[in-house]
Amino acid sequence: MKLGGPVVMLGLLIVQHGFPKFLQTLVNSVALGSLYALIALGYTLVYGVLRFINFAHSDVFAVGAWLSFTFATAFGWVATSSPLWGMPLVLLLVMAACALLGVTIEILAYRPLRKAPRLNVLITAIGVSLFLQNVGQLSSVFGTQPQRMPSLIEDRSLFTIAQVHIRLVDVTVIALALALMMALQWMVFRTRLGRAMRAVSFDEKVASLMGINVNRVVTITFAIGSALAAAGGLLFALKYEGLKQTADATWVLLGLKAFVAAVVGGIGNVRGAVAGALLIGVVEVFGASYLSPHMRDVYVFVILIVVLLLKPSGILGKAVREKV
Amino acid sequence: MAMLEVSDLHVYYDGIHALKGVSFSVEEGEVVTLIGANGAGKTTTLRAISGLVRAARGQVRFQGQRISNLPAHTIVAKGLAHSPEGRGIFPNLTVEENLDIGAFLRRDAAGVAKDKEQALALFPRIKERLEQSAGTLSGGEQQMLAMARALMARPKLLLLDEPSLGLAPQVVQQIFKIVRTIAASGTTILLVEQNAHMALRVARTAHVLEVGTLALSGDAAALSKDDKIRKAYLGVH
Q: How do residues A156-201 score in pLDDT, each as one tens digit?
């Protein structure tokens, strides 16, 4: 295959630069991949039940990051002055707030269009996205000035392997994302609600014949997806600290890459979203650190193109027939 | 009082006047069949009863209570289960999960477990495949699963839409034998069929639908001797 060349080249580069750099890059890539995964799950869950791409999802993520900043500063925490329970508290608050936001969007904007053509809903989602981006810039909301997130997690190295300091914040990001993904996996495959979600995903009419309230399942799906995006927003703010205004292109780009992750993994597939996100994270960070940092976005979209060419249904996706 | 009363039911489906004032009733404990050609409105009638399509005019009463135009998921709770056309099993769920989802609204775990056991006794072929994904079942097995799933709701009235569709004659025999067993256990059944021959043998009362209206109604045994019915639906000349 033609992919062999670049892969061998990258392998040689990695060996040449030594193990410490490899390890540091690996940690960074898994941390970024975990963030993408939290966002990608929201895209994939909503697509799973409604068969539509919620383009406002990346803005819910941005709102999550900004709300984390708002809550943290409202409590008066800056730098390392936050108590140990500061981060979990902010996490719960933003997850709840964004779940509420997601549910509101679903009920006000998408539910009235449940029987409308998919394109109408898609355009509405873009409208909601623009609305959130611009409302977020109002001076009474988050404003247009970039802000620095208070570090709710002490900036110290947790342990050192081969001269590489593994930072507490990276471990927190990865561990928390992993815990949330496992909770979601359990919920979807082991609970009554998850079974209802999978039934609605296949056929909402037959699901309603089973006594499943389809609207309620959709609402809960939006709540879960938005809460995960909020968690991603907080973790993003903790790791990267600088927050740009809500209409800034960085948010759209992050959301877009998470969406690419969902597609690469197989949209509608929960495990696929996680696998796709980790792959995107690895490719982006390794490419940026070993090849060229200016091209990091390009690597992501190259992966998208390659996957769509080789396996259009995604890495873990199954070729399923369209719903009729 | 009849268990199910359908009166002057009108339904528009994709702009087509699919049902033009259909009235009939189902008594508790009986098997009633709706027969008729493709597009006569049989499936639409069932879908209007279970709340999948809107009734434009007329009404449906179940055990004296008006149920027409209630959301479908609230109708199941009243004791009416619908095994839909084309089976409607969830291929992305395992066979067992399909059964469990049939009892979605039930909170009596012990009763559900007992009903599952009974359903599996009725459909032994399903029992061997509980862990399998339901999409891997054969057509006949999927039909059996759809019926077993509907029974998991412990319905007072079971709506069966074309259980014989696309199945080999031998499997059709099996399915109808099970329909009889279900009826004998006291469940009221409203059966929609294109296979008029089998349907008239199982049912006590039959209604013949022709382009959205009831053309004929009566005792199933008598209808199966009716010349017009024999020519039009039983293929006897």
A: 888 888 888 889 989 999 999 999 999 999 999 999 999 999 999 9
Mean pLDDT by 10 residues, chain B (237 residues): 94 90 95 92 95 95 95 96 95 95 95 95 93 93 96 96 93 95 95 92 94 91 85 72
A90 inside domain: yes
Chain A hits for B149, CB-CB cut-off 8 Å, are: 210
**pLDDT of A81-136, one tens digit each?**
677 788 899 999 999 999 999 999 999 999 999 889 989 999 999 999 999 999 99
Contact B24, B48 (CB under 8 A): no
Using only the alpha carbons of chain A, give its radius of gyration: 20
Q: How many angstroms away from the CA of A205 is the closest CA of chain B?
A: 7
Shortest Cα–Cα distance, A172 to chain B (Å): 34
- Torsion angle of alpha carbons A245, A250, A256, A257, nearest 10°? -140
Asked whether residue A319 is assigned to any structural domain, the reply reads no
Q: How many residues are given for chain A?
A: 324
Assign A21 to helix, strand or coil: helix
Amino acid type, B140: G
Domains (ranges, CATH) in chain B? 1-78+191-237 (3.40.50.300)
Closest partner CB to A202 (pick from B91, B100, B105) = B91
> Are the beta carbons of A304 and A263 closer than 8 angstroms?
yes
Could you report the per-residue pLDDT of B166-211, keeping only the tens digit for each? Answer: 999 999 999 999 999 999 999 999 999 989 989 999 999 999 999 9
Question: Does A23 fall in a domain?
Answer: yes
Enter the ipTM. Answer: 0.93
Domain of A279 in residue numbering reads as 4-310
* Among B206, B221, B155, B142, CA closest to B182: B155
A262 found inside a domain = yes
> Chain B residues contacting A, CB < 8 Å?
50-52, 71-73, 76-77, 81-82, 84, 88, 90-93, 97, 100-102, 104-105, 149, 153
* Main-chain dihedrals φ then ψ at residue A88, nearest 5 degrees: -60, -35
pLDDT digits 0-9 by tens, B144-156: 999 999 999 999 9
The half-sphere exposure of B232 on its side-chain side, counting CA atoms within 13 A, is 15
- On the 0-12 / 13-18 / 19+ scale of CB atoms within 10 A, B70 is middle
* CA proximity to B37, closest of B232, B235, B237, B230: B232
Structure tokens at B103: 């009892």
First-to-final CA distance of chain B:
39
The CATH number that applies at residue A153 is: 1.10.3470
**Residues facing B159 on adjacent strands:** B82, B190
Number of domain units in chain A: 1
Report the alpha-carbon distance of residue B56 to residue B42 in Å, rounded.
16
